[in-house]
Design goal:
By secondary structure, the protein is mainly beta. The longest helix is centred in the first third of the chain and has 16 residues, at 3-18.
Amino acid sequence: MSSQLLSKLALSISIALSTYAVATPVIGAEESDQSMESITVVGKSVSYANNQTSEEMAKQQSNLTSVLAQIDNLPGVLINEGDTFGSDDWSTTVSIRGFQLSLDEQQIGITIDGIANGNSNYGGGAKANRYIDTENLAAVEVSQGTGDVASRSNEALGGTLNFTTIAPNDEEQMTVSWSQGNFDAQKFFVRYDTGEVAKDTFAWVSVSNSRNSDWIDHSAENRRDHIAAKVVSLFGDVEVTAYGSWDDTHEDNYQRVSLAQFQQNPESDGLISEWTGIPYVDQVYRQGWSTLRENLFGYVSAEYKGDNIELNANVYYHQNEGRGDWVPQYVVDVNADGDNAPHSELVSGQTVTGGSALGQIFFVDKAGYALSPEADCESSITFPYGGAGAVYDPACYTDGAVPVGSYRHTHYEKERVGFNADFTWFSKIADMDNSLRGGIWYEDYSRNESRDWHKIIDSRTSAEFDHTPYWIEYERTFPVETTMLYLENELDMDFAVVRLGAKKFLVDLAREDNFDSSNGASISSDSDLLISAGVVVPMPIDGLELFAGYAENFAAIKDTVLERDASTLDLVTPESAENVDLGLRYVSQNINASLTYYSIKFDDRLTFIAPDSPDGIDYLIGTNGSYVNVGGVESSGIEASLSVKLTDTFSVYGAFTANDSEYTEGSIGYPAGNTVFGSVENMLVVSLDWEKDNRFAGLSSKWVDDRYIDAANTAVADAYLVTDLYAGITLPSLAQGMGDLELRFTVNNLFDESYLGGIAGQSAWIGAPRTAAFNATLKF
């Protein structure tokens, strides 16, 4: 650890020690102004490690920030996003116990109020920030490792993140929030709680609009519009809940860099803000690296609680559509126009469907005939990706040569329909409480993906493109059917609670080529019977319990594997993991603590070989990369959290993670014994929180150890320390009929640490710099 990191960490720890307190954050699931449900960060009394976010963790992030950021201080969890606000899904990574959510891998499950999110991959997936506004988030439940047997995800190798939405208020209320921050960031949010709109029926509806640019050159035009509503109604013994959200997002991306590029210039990712008129250079025009997504999601659930039985069920619907953009530095020659003929690809309205690339067109004359560079001309272009050959350099052509380039769109569409049903039956076995629960998850979805190429109207002046494509490269549909069945029995023997369960996934997926019916494919990705077991033992000390758990986890082959021509389907197998948790959990009025040892054996790791890298992008790589099984990983480690509240005003929270994740024998291209790239070996969090009367403040520091950027373990992202600060005040009613006004100031990365953040594809994104934001929230 560098002397700078030590000094910054010492500053945060010294502040904490000076208070003689160690924290107890609690989470508030807002139900009314008068009632807050408190949940400790230690989590529930179950046989596996689990934690939940706290109210203080929410305050450390501004309202502009993605909901994902709130879990970053929990033990074992590392969140990296391209900027503080999480406004770029391309650069978002999540790491837990060596498992990853990134461009490469999807190994951590995400659910929304317990409902599957429909995968987290970039190409048509949707993480929690697409479904929930920050102001509508109640809590995030993180089940590391073994997790709950009933978890609705076929990606949950390393655990599940369950994001829960707030309940409606008992009383009518309007909440208006305004946020302003660095990098042109602003957000307006309004939520109306109806109170009791009908007998035993309560609801809320919210609308928000947010904008920000990027932190590097301030040229990105990120925007997000979000609408959500929730209704809860009681019909006798049945509680019915309905939730719906619509999210429309346009994000301009950040680019990954190599270690050498970061060391050369840690303040630039190599994307540019101005159009130069040279297609080779303009391929890194930031506003041409874009993610457009629209998500519509909703569910209706019903829950019944009887004397000895509980039943709950829900149906849900999700529609996703969007686009991913790049700006290739050429026009693809896809039509054999013949010798001495102008290229028809340059004429608007002449679209070629299917087929393959015949070549590339770089410069043409005014009539549309392709030109060749002058003989023996050496290009003077050195940026980006180390420079270009003569075919890309306008100086190597005669006067009057016209540069041509493309705007490439990959279109994503998905429609999911599913249902969940669960039962829990309570009984007695020889005076011992026994509960048997089981359930089913079924989902039918169809995802469509297509790619088209558009000519940039005039590459010399701007990125404006012809909206009629000159080439539709492919169009494919991926139907996927998922069924999960589970059954678990839990017996309370007084001296211990033991559980034994099993689940099984039945997953069928296929590829339908809409241009070439012979290019279809199908594959079954069923799991074995997955065993889950655990025990919770109360200890002689009141509030202390021992827990142990074992689970066989599974990640189905994803439909994205079928879209890659380079993936050999008969060689691709589902991923699996065996997880063991052993720990202690202590809960009291003022002290909460947990300590977990875990051991994981991860087999058949499936990795996406991405086409882009710091050395350049092959835009004609087919369908954007391939998936291969690359062997296994073994992980073990310790997760610890401690919180103590000694006074009514001060609290300090601490978390420590020690993780060892290594590639095992048989790994292809991943040397056995090497550390898994992107995984972190040690993390430490210290948070100080203070609240008195109507004032509150907090300081939180997280230290992240060195991480390897590559599987060969030759490039190292140095350890870093990031500190967040928040302070605020709640002003009482300023006028008749007006509620409290809360003012909050947040600074993330207070000391402006320069570091490499998310890692994927054996390269990394630069971490976000110091970012300040101010929020005003009025309730009336």
